[in-house]
Amino acid sequence: xxxxxxxxxxxxxxxxxxxxxxxxxxxxxxxxxxxxxxxxxxxxxxxxxxxxxxxxxxxxxxxxxxxxxxxxxxxxxxxxxxxxxxxxxxxxxxxxxxxxxxxxxxxxxxxxxxxxxxxxxxxxxxxxxxxxxxxxxxxxxxxxxxxxxxxxxxxxxxxxxxxxxxxxxxxxxxxxxxxxxxxxxxxxxxxxxxxxxxxxxxxxxxxxxxxxxxxxxxxxxxxxxxxxxxxxxxxxxxxxxxxxxxxxxxxxxxxxxxxxxxxxxxxxxxxxxxxxxxxxxxxxxxxxxxxxxxxxxxxxxxxxxxxxxxxxxxxxxxxxxxxxxxx
Length: 327
Known about the structure:
The chain is α+β, with helices and mostly antiparallel strands. 33% of the residues lie in helices and 31% in strands.
């Protein structure tokens, strides 16, 4: 085989483009290989270089391929080895090169080329986001969504921290997935609300129309329209409820609590009214709060909670102190 033919031959292997005939030719060429250790050193060196690569531009990729080819060319056919050792060595180096190039290609396509966008909200703020497929997302206060500039052909995946109401564009062949730190929600096209603040004790999914699949670390459940699942991250308990009320009442300024721990209620009020809420020292607050409030002031909501739970409040500027005994 002439020099130019050898060059093209090795480049095909480096690019992971070869046929059965090429593989047989490789074995034939390698029968006179002089040093089995050289192949192992070559594979190890290429692997070490790839492990240090965080991203790869097209120019860097070409340089990497050229270096791999240059190293392979150092093999000087002189001495015969036993056929078994030869096969194992050649299969090992080719497999390593293909694996390394696969890793490099993965990073190039999924890390370098894919552009990720982030939308977020602050205290008392809501924001509408139009995702690449036309899906509409309304973010609640102190929330963040991370999504790619364009979705892949296989799936549409976004990452949510906080709360968001989704109106998903229907695409039968391309599932829409919302990932959170507690669970994933998978749909084809529907309207639903996800509440998944990482700092809260409870998280929830409410379905307005269509169906969703909620994937937990060790379980899976399906919800249809007017169904809700509440999950307590501390105890691991969950409850599936039928709810004919309006989904995501926060879109219109409302608040709704369903057996919500008072600590989570305090966080909701902080995010909504941009205030700071603390609990009196030395007192136990394990109340579960239920109720709905229509676009009311902070003081009106606190008064309602006081009436139903016996938890009193004192407002000083932007600070709210919750306590159980009159002071």
